[in-house]
Design a protein that fits this description.
single chain, 348 residues, alpha/beta, Spore Coat Polysaccharide Biosynthesis Protein SpsA, Chain A, 2 domains, seven-stranded mixed sheet, three-stranded mixed sheet
C-alpha cells in the first residue's frame, strides 16, 4: 500500500492512532472516536487513521471532529486486503487490518491501535507517550492468562477441537512463559523504530497461510515473543466481561483484585460483551455506550437492530444445517449439562 500521502503530514511529535472498521462496526467506531475526543487533554495534534473496510458515512466522522482543530482523520482503503482470511463469530476480515500497520506505517516511530468497539475514559496521549523501552509491541494480557472459564472452554473449528488451554499450548505451541504473556490485540502500541519490519512481514506472510481460532490476535502473539513484548497495565484494556466473573473464576489474584476489588480505574474499556446485543444491556459499561451512541446519527438504526437481534431470532435465521450444527456443538452440549446440573444437582 502506498504510504506517501500519510508521510506528507507525518510529524513524530504528533499522536498517531489507528483503528479499523467495516460498515458493520461503523456506529461503534463513532462512539470510540467520540470518547477519544472527549478525554483528549494534550495540545498535540491527534492523527486518526481509519483502516477502512467499507465505511458508508465518512461525513459523520469528519463532522465529529470539525470543531476540534487538534484532530485529523484519514481513511485508508483496505477493501481489497485480507480477502480470504478466516472469519468466525463476530470477527470479520477488518480485524486483520491491524496487521498491515507494520507495512503502512513502516516509516513512523510509533503507532497506537484501538479496537473499533472501545470506550475511552482517559487521555490516549498518556498511552502513546508511555516509555516502552526497547520492546517492539505493547499490549495488555488477554483473559486466557487469568480466566478459568476461558481456559476450560471447549472450542471447535476446522483446525482444532478441544479445551481452549490445550489449543494455546498444543496447537499454537506456546510455552508457559509465552502463555503467561499472551496479549490482547484490542489495544496495542507498535514501537516501529525498534521492529525489523522486513523480517516480521516475511514471517507474517507465513503465519497468514494458516487459520487461527483467535484470528489476528494469535498471529500477533506468534509474531512477537515475550522478550519483544511490553505488558501494559489492565487499565489500558479493561474487558467489560471481567466484573461479571465470580471470585473463584480467576486464575490469579491480581486480576481478581483489578476487577472485583476495584484495584484499577479503567482508561480504555473493551467490549467483550457487546453492548448492542439485547442480552448484554445489564452488563458493565453498556449504559455508557448507549449514552454516547444516542448522540450519534446511528442511534435509531442500532436500537432498531438490537430489538430484533435476539438470541432466538438469530437462531431462527440459521439454515437447518446450521441449526443442527449449533445444537450438537460442544458449546451447546456444555450448556445442556449446566442446565441439567442446576435442575437436578440440588436434589441429590
Amino acid at each position: 500500500m502506498n504510504t506517501l500521502e500519510i508521510l506528507k503530514s507525518y510529524n513524530r511529535k504528533d499522536i498517531h492512532i489507528c483503528l479499523s472498521s467495516d460498515s458493520n462496526y461503523e456506529p461503534h467506531l463513532w462512539v470510540t472516536i467520540y470518547t477519544i475526543l472527549q478525554n483528549a487533554k494534550s495540545n498535540k495534534k491527534y492523527n486518526i487513521y481509519i483502516l477502512d473496510g467499507g465505511i458508508k458515512h465518512k461525513e459523520y466522522f469528519y463532522k465529529l471532529i470539525e470543531s476540534d482543530k487538534r484532530f485529523h482523520i484519514q481513511f485508508l482503503d483496505m477493501s481489497n486486503q485480507y480477502i480470504s482470511v478466516y472469519e468466525s463469530r463476530h470477527v470479520s476480515k477488518a480485524a486483520y487490518y491491524r496487521l498491515s500497520i507494520l507495512d503502512i506505517f513502516k516509516d513512523f516511530d510509533k503507532v497506537m491501535y484501538l479496537d473499533a468497539d472501545s470506550y475511552v475514559l482517559g487521555d490516549i496521549n498518556e498511552l502513546f507517550d508511555m516509555n516502552i523501552k526497547d520492546k517492539q509491541i505493547a499490549g495488555v494480557k488477554d483473559s486466557i492468562t487469568y480466566e478459568i472459564p476461558w481456559r476450560e472452554k471447549k472450542i471447535s473449528y476446522k483446525n482444532y477441537s478441544g479445551k481452549a488451554l490445550d489449543y494455546f499450548k498444543e496447537y499454537l505451541h506456546l510455552s508457559d512463559s509465552k502463555l503467561n504473556n499472551y496479549f490482547s490485540s484490542g489495544v496495542l502500541v507498535f514501537n516501529l523504530k525498534k521492529i525489523d519490519k522486513e523480517k516480521k512481514i516475511k514471517k507474517l506472510k507465513e503465519l497468514l497461510k494458516n487459520d487461527y481460532y483467535c484470528h489476528d490476535q494469535d498471529i500477533l502473539n506468534l509474531l512477537f515473543d515475550e522478550n519483544e513484548t511490553f505488558l501494559l497495565g489492565r487499565e489500558w484494556n479493561y474487558f467489560n466481561s471481567g466484573p461479571v466473573l465470580k471470585p473463584d473464576e480467576f486464575f490469579n489474584d491480581e486480576e481478581r483484585n483489578n476487577y472485583l476489588n476495584g484495584k484499577i480505574s479503567p482508561k480504555v474499556v473493551s467490549y467483550v460483551l457487546k453492548p448492542w446485543l439485547k442480552e448484554n444491556l445489564d452488563k458493565p459499561y453498556v449504559k455508557e455506550y448507549w449514552d454516547i451512541l444516542s448522540l450519534s446519527p446511528y442511534y435509531s438504526d442500532v436500537k432498531r437492530e438490537m430489538e430484533s437481534n435476539t438470541k432466538w431470532n438469530r437462531f431462527k435465521k440459521k439454515s437447518l444445517k446450521e441449526k443442527i450444527k449449533y445444537l450438537t456443538s460442544i458449546d451447546a452440549i456444555e450448556k445442556y449439562k449446566s442446565v441439567l446440573k442446576k435442575l437436578y444437582g440440588s436434589k441429590k
